Amino acid sequence: MQLDLKKGSRPRILATATLVIMAVFIVRLFYLQIIRHDYYVSEAKKEQLKQLVIPAQRGEIYAMDGGTPVKMVLNETVYTVFADPKVVDKAQDVIDLVHKVAGGNARPNLSTLLNQKESRYQILATKVTRKQAELMKNAHLKGLGFQQESQRVYPEGQLAAQTLGFVNAEGKGQYGIEEALDDHLTGTDGLLQSVTDVSNVPLTIGDNNINQPAKNGQNVIMTVDRNIQAYTEKALADGLKKSHASNGSVMVMDPQSGKVVAMANAPTFNPAEYNKVQDAAAFNNATISAPYEPGSDVKTLTMATGLDKGVVAPDSTYNNTDSIKIEDRTISNATKGQTGNITFQHALNYSLNTGFVTVAERLGDGQNITLGARNTMYDYFHNKFGLGELTGIELANESKGTVIPPTDADGGAVRYSNMAFGQGLDVTMVQVCAAFSTILNGGTYYKPTVLGGTMSDDGGTFTPAAPKPARQQVVSAATSDKIRVMIHDARSAFYAGKDKPGYYIGGKTGTSQTIENGHYVDNQTVGTYLGFGGDSNSSGGPKYVIMVQVSGKGMNLAGNTDAMPIFTDISN
Amino acid sequence: MSYQRTTQFSSRRAGNWNRNQNTTRFASPVKLGPVTHTVLVALMITVLGLIYLTQATRATSYDYEAQKIDSKIADLTTRKTDLEVENARLTALENVQNSSVAKAMTHPTQTDYVQE
């Protein structure tokens, strides 16, 4: 049948109108479905597809307990309790419940918060444990919600606080291992992208689903032994109490591997309550980040240098007149009266500055600290012992210190005469401990480390890290044997009888002047003690090196009276 | 040449009767028109659709099961972590030192050292 519509007839007009409307629809559909295709697909996906972040667990930190790793820093799931004031219908019940269950974690003004009906989100309590959260959930009160989060837990409290550091509110590691190994500890968040139902349950339908599991952060096993650490902290606290010093640091190192088994600092803090610390200086690990003039402790290194170069021996002598002139400066001994021809052992026992300036002179032409002598000292102190260089210990904020090279305008004979007895250079305790370990252990320099090994992902298998010598034959074995006996004798000369039988212990005191506004001051000294110990001298050298430092603003503290008792307490 | 169209199937062989050859002739008594065919196709599509929906629903029900298991795993993991934290707190040095067992300990009256 053929429709014959007359021009201007109503059916024709209707047909034309229908065609126009159809055309409009087609054009509109073309616009929506073809031109705006990508936009509407993405809008639809926004509604249908949910992206959920699967948070990665931060790696845990272990310390050693003898030969077994124990957890020092863990993660705990805690909850933030919030309410939607518009939905809450029994405000008083909610307030009573939160107060009863959350206790001190509840915010103080709950009724005010719940009265803010225009707000849809009010936090009522933070850091609520899982058990507390379950108790609240079981009350089935309307408008109450729970947000899960992870927080760091420090079951040992303040123990090794500066070594551990802490994790700030943004989840970033600050200070210590937490900052230095933040990338290792953090891990990578996973991603779950899926079509979900109204309850956000992921469904397998859809072809754009992604299920990328989270990669948890790596666990870290420290070399720090929690028992030695705890005793060291206690000994330091007791020692500071006796000497009335305000600041102190102790480092205990295994000289056969460079592993740090304890590092204590005072004042200290609790990493779980880092936000309550008034003075941020408490966060600093002074053993690695506070360079200072080491004083007489360095005489052991000067002596080792002289022994190794063959210019002095323990029983070789020099003429001590209690002072010695270097260019236009006169250097005097702190201890007077040991004059005449005395041995270098005697000079070490009494910590005579003149003896060690003489060693520096004998490294040159015997009368002067020549460029050759200075080059030798710099080679040993800086290149071999690592003074004035970052050790690379796996802790944040390590300082380099300063050892002026002989090529520098300030690196003249006067500077190097001072360096021979521990002034005119800035070093950190970890540098001194590593250098001291080197001269005691037969001449191997181990990079100081706080990493004790690796742990399998399931936390079941611990593989200890093998010691990694950084430099060998730094000094000869013969030099090492000699200096060990000299340091033992230096301690025995004055402190015999105090050490327990069966131990072979040696040590050297140090009392350093401090510099204020570029000048040495008389009313403020830092007391140090650097020593070693072990069951005997013949079984492969010492088992530990301990360095103690005590200081205080405007206080004259001495190595023998203020630092040595702390060493003796720990080493015995 | 004239050609007569029939509604029944008729083999060309039927005209040539040979020995031992099939001679069955099929003729359906039911006649299906185009509307019936359309309805049948629509029904088949509907059945297929229902089968698809059933399978999809079953897959979704597995999703809910999987979600329940995932939640249980997460809950148990949290409980395990809590127990580890509790264990670490209870075995912390300070707790051990303050324990009744440790407080009851006394210092030895005499210490001897083995000499090698």
Name some characteristics of this structure.
heterodimer, A: 572 residues, alpha+beta, Penicillin-binding protein 2a (Domain 2), Beta-lactamase, 2 domains, seven-stranded mixed β-sheet, 18 helices, 34% helix, B: 116 residues, mainly alpha, 57% helix, 0% strand
Quick synopsis:
The complex is a heterodimer of chains A (572) and B (116). Chain A is an alpha+beta fold. Chain A has two domains: 74-153, Penicillin-binding protein 2a (Domain 2), CATH 3.90.1310; 224-571, DD-peptidase/beta-lactamase superfamily (Beta-lactamase, 3-Layer(aba) Sandwich).
Characterization of the model:
- The complex is a heterodimer of chains A (572) and B (116).
- The longest helix of chain A has 26 residues, at 10-35.
- Chain A has 572 residues and is an alpha+beta fold.
- Chain A has 18 helices and 24 strands.
- Chain A has two domains: 74-153, Alpha-Beta Complex (Penicillin-binding protein 2a (Domain 2)), CATH 3.90.1310.10; 224-571, DD-peptidase/beta-lactamase superfamily (Beta-lactamase, 3-Layer(aba) Sandwich), CATH 3.40.710.10.
- In chain A, strands 2, 3, 4, 5, 11, 19 and 20 form a seven-stranded mixed beta sheet that branches. In chain A, strands 13-12-24-23-22 form a five-stranded antiparallel beta sheet, sandwiched between helices. In chain A, strands 1, 8, 9 and 10 form a four-stranded antiparallel beta sheet that branches.
- With 116 residues, chain B is mainly α.
- Chain B is built from three helices and no strands.
- Chain B has helices spanning 34-90, 93-97, 100-103.
- Chain B is rod-shaped.
- The mean pLDDT of chain B is 80.
- At the A-B interface, β3, β9 and α9 of A face α1 of B.
